[in-house]
Amino acid sequence: MAGRIAYRRIYEDASPQDGKRVLVDRLWPRGVSKEEAHLDEWLRDVAPSTDLRRWYHHDPELFDEFRRRYLAELDDPEHRPAVERLHDLAAHGKVTLLTATKDVDHSEAAVLADWLNHSEHQHA
């Protein structure tokens, strides 16, 4: 599965190279209609908790700690179905994780893509 999961902003135009398009934000992005999003799925349950999102507030100086805390959250059973769904999608082709965040390289989508691309996790 390595390298089959990419990430980018939902505000960029959809591309055939995206494969399955999956929104990984907890909140729906402003100014984007369901039609414009061209989503295959919205997995809000894989997003960081509201508390973690508010604490981080997309401050790049907090990114390393955000990454650590978010990865710990992903091991929580409440995230398991959404994580398993991403594994399943990636097993059948390319997946692009979408986020509304301006600094996409310091977002949950970046952390999640890296984690899944390098994951040794076995799914149940």
> Overall 3D geometry?
globular
- Summed over residues and divided by their number, the pLDDT gives a mean of 91
- How is the main sheet built? 4 strands, parallel
Strand content: 5-15%
One letter per element, helices H and strands E, the order comes to EEHEHHHEH
Please list the strands of the largest sheet in the order they lie side by side.
1-4-2-3
User: Strand pairing plus helix content: what structural class?
Assistant: alpha/beta
Radius of gyration: 13 Å
- Cα(first) to Cα(last) distance is 16 Å
Count the DSSP helices: 5
How many domains, as an integer?
1
Number of DSSP E strands = 4
Provide key terms for this protein:
four-stranded parallel sheet; 124 residues; single chain; alpha/beta; 36% helix; disordered C terminus
